[in-house]
Amino acid sequence: QHAPNTAYDKQAIVQLFEWRWVDIAEECERFLGPNGFGGVQVSPPSENMPIDSPDVHRPWYERYQPVSYHLNTRSGNDSEFRDMVHRCNQQGVRIYVDLVINHMSALGCGYGTGGSYFNTYSKEYEGVPYGAFDFNCNDDVTQTRCYTSDCEVHNIDDPFEMRNCRLFGLLDLKLDSEYVRGKVVDYINYLISIGVAGFRVDAVKHMWPGDMEAIFGRLNDLNTAYFWPGSRPFIVLEVIEGWGGSSSEYIHLGRVTEFEYGYHLGAVFRKWDGRTLSSLKDFGEDWGMEWDGNALVFVDNHDSQRSHASVVTFRDSRLYKMANAFMLAFPYGFVRLMSSFYWDQYWEDGKDVNSWVGPPSDSNWNILPVQINGMGTCDNGWVCEHRWRQIRNMVLFRNLAAGHGMYNWWDNNLNQIAFSRGDRAFIVINNDDGWALDETLQTGLPQGDYCDVISGDVSDGGCTGKTITVGWDRTAHIYIAPDEEDPMVAIHVASKV
Ligand code: LAG
Ligand code: CA
């Protein structure tokens, strides 16, 4: 459950946050397959509570408030979801589902995005169905598992409260009940039967490891129309370290989201507190992070891009491209890229009061299609970081470098670094402000002319960017001015011209 089940051992996936299924299917065919992307993490496909109050209209976070397991959301319906999974698999691009199984919605009643009736005051969700006894905090004292007066988690250091009480007022499911487990397992096995490759599991610290073991142990093997017989679903557990609970309790079940990775990387590229790129030489386990094979790494995700000051995002585009290039070049963890929608921030008392804003939508709150413009980037409010050349081309770099360790590390003790991945690929980054990088460096690569895939692309055997000449002794002279748009150079065995 730690192996991502990618086709051809591809090394990176992308979170297409809030995209419609029809757009993802197209993206697999026209972009992700051809560019070596291993898969897509999709937003939760389970029917959710539509949130529309005077202040908050259809926020992205309503997707984290399920009301049934029918595949019917603003991203699309069941048949669109199935079509997407099939078409992406045909391109060798896997689909990973964001699983919300810790809880259902917060207080409210009405109809979900798929038309299922729910009433949280009586704790009924007809689309599943769930009723009052299926939840942890219950008026009936013989049934309850949570003893706080308002059913909320207050003391995060108390594992019982953390797992049995409500997070943000979301009705907490009794995952030790045979009935609830059955409903959850049926939902997941249905997704597996469609052909998904794995899951990102939401709110893991709010669930007991034993309940998750029982649930994951009942999952079917992946669909043999697309996967080898006996393949087990890839599991990524959303664990934010240091906030009531630890990833060590869950690591046997799958990989964990290594949030520290993006926090540190952002701080290093921002040069906070005198930090320098040269310190990244031993990035990974030596920094107190998970073992390589247990880590899912990312520069930002939909939560950290809204909440964490050191994290770099599309708004810091120059640093963002550098941090992503480093992540994709560096041999640690399984990589997830982020692909966002744009929203206008509005800062009050150091907080963005618009952080709830949902995906681009029309006047009826239907999510807008992702439009691709003539430059191959996105319009209609979609940022599509994954399509930025500097990030897109580094995906192939990582695929080609897989299995080859880091060699030929060089740094200037400050913010200029270079390293190769065996004899397959080589990268140089200059994040120093005042001065150029002007060095002859060991690339590890065989003699020849190589196209720098940061400044351009290989096209018709030529190069639209810089050409780097590697000599008989495998060294190359590299010059990177400090004020370059992208102060980096990356070459690999498939960029030889
Ligand atoms: C996650 N990971 O473990 C998600 O990545 C994170 O985005 C989810 O919270 C969280 N777990 C629960 O699934 C998101 C928003 C919250 C939002 C919640 C439920 O970050 O802000 O809560 O989804 O939609 C919102 C309000 C709360 C309110 C609650 C219920 O912010 O103030 O109490 O809704 O109305
Ligand atoms: Ca729980």
Which stretches are poorly predicted, pLDDT < 50 over at least 5 residues? Answer: none
Structure annotation, total helices:
9
Q: Which structural class do the helices and strands define?
A: alpha/beta
Kindly state the number of beta strands. Answer: 27
Strand content: 15-25%
What is the CA-atom radius of gyration, in angstroms?
A: 23 Å
Shape: globular
Helix content: 10-25%
Question: How far apart are the termini?
Answer: 40 Å
If you average the pLDDT, what whole number results? 96
Ligands (ions, cofactors included): ligand LAG, calcium ion
Q: Biggest sheet, strands in spatial order?
A: 1-2-5-9-10-11-12-13
Q: What is the makeup of the main sheet?
A: 8 strands, parallel, barrel
GO molecular function: alpha-amylase activity; metal ion binding
EC number: 3.2.1.1
Domain Alpha-amylase C-terminal: 407-496
Organism: Branchiostoma lanceolatum
